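pasting for ref
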Amino acid sequence: MDQLHRHILLLLSIPIYAILIPLEIVLSHLNHWRFYSMKETLVNIYLNIVNIGVDLLLRGVAAAVLIFFYNYHFSNTLHPVAYWLVLFLCEDALFWLEHYIDHNCRLFWAVHVTHHSSGEFNLSTGFRSSVFMPFYRYLYFVPLALCGFRPLDIFFMYAITQTYGILVHTQKIKRLPRWIEYILVTPSHHRVHHASNIPYLDRNMGMVLIIWDRMFGTFTEEIPQEVPRYGLTKPLEKPNHPVSIIFHEWKAIGKDLKKKIPFTTKLRYLFSPPGWSHDGTTKTTKELQHTWSAENK
């Protein structure tokens, strides 16, 4: 990444690390908001460090793959302003797609679930990384490379949008002006996304723009009478264990695959939405929401 890109990222990220998170921690303590606990914050830091390590190991692979496809790219003669605007829009839409698949395919949910496993919601939760995502995240960007967007610029844009994505992990910003709430992902939208309340499950997948959720039917407003409860629908047995926090869903998948069921049914335990079961003992989000809607008519 060139020096200009580095300087821009530093200007965006340093205030989060050095100012906003410490400020939220101090205010939470002084005002007894109980947004932070030592254990959960340390787990967030631990997962972020592991993610960074995996990302550094695979960065060369990701760059090589995108460079390979960029060598066969279509002509891209966009004006520089249009170039960055189109890159942002396309990358944000592809993030929505990745996020949607992470929530609707159990194989990928096993990776993503760590980000949702905290019972707290604060700025440090934004660093509670899905540690194995670097193994496949870059594959979503292959169409961008084929369309003539430089791999360096793709990574740079992703870093910027991720920085924005961290900022919406807060409980203290309530509702923003209506036009902002209509276009951008806001803390209110993202509180819904992290909540384990049944009507909130698998909603508001966007990183920066909420318009993709509005377009594709995954948008839900934060309801005043439905206060978000953070974490997973089924609490973890060892929520702070350094190995279990990463591998617990993989362990559950392994247990399901050992069942005496047909091979095609085993595949459904991998690729169907989380909660799917061949005997109905567990429910998917859609099944839970259907029951919830019927009970709350």
